[in-house]
Amino acid sequence: EFSVSHPEIVKGMARDYYEAGSDMVLTNSFGGNRFMLKKYGHGDRVRELNRLAAELARSQTPPGRYVLGSVGPTGEFLEPLGEVTEAEMLDVFREQIGALAEGGVDGIVVETMTALGEASLAIKAAKEHPQLVVIATMTFDKGPRGFFTMMGVTPERAISELRRAGADIVGANCGSGIETMAELAREMRQATDGYLLVHANAGMPTIQGSRVVYPETPEFMVDGFRRLADLGINIMSGCCGTNPEHVRALAQALRG
Questions:
Q1: HSE-CB of 256 using CA atoms within 13 angstroms
Q2: pLDDT tens, 18-45?
Q3: Which residues, at least 6 apart from 14, have a Cβ–Cβ distance to it below 8 Å?
Q4: Residues 133, 107: contact at Cβ < 8 Å?
Q5: Cα diameter, the chain
């Protein structure tokens, strides 16, 4: 809804990241599907809000840079774990991704996924637009037995299944700071020689007074970004808690 009420701020976010050195920016459409928007009274505005999110980012895009439409989880579970059928969830993703395509995105990033079934349906919807590059990433936690998504998916299985579903680029985002994400990236690179994307949090957040604070500074994250580059990660940046200063430090470290 911020795209309608505060379009200049949304455009300014895209502009700030391009000026910091980003090759591509994401639209402010994470959670912009019918299931999620309905909870906030905007379930009938999916096309309007997603198309506008894409148009606002596109309006700030310099030549040779790109806009990716951000598509996050629906917040629902497929049958039999939940009550949503595959056909219903596919329709929800088609609605959102179709609007992002109308708004002029260059690709779709299906991100922060934990369930392969849901991710695969989002990829299927995106592949109905052959002009779009399709990226899919999942979120992993590290436990005593290694890395798994909340639904028990390993990095190796995620890469295999997301590729099989049709994703052009796969990877991981969110859930971890740069050091843990570099460890995860090593496992993912060992599982594929294809294109990989990694977006790390600026650490894990804490509550300080009334503020949510992420501890990892741009200077701290730079060493981790260099390790990602050494591993051959093709696309990298920050996720939760990062800002244009993190991107600026990343761009300066890798490009000089």
A1: 0
A2: 999 999 999 999 999 999 999 999 999 9
A3: 25, 56, 57, 59, 60, 61, 67
A4: yes
A5: 52
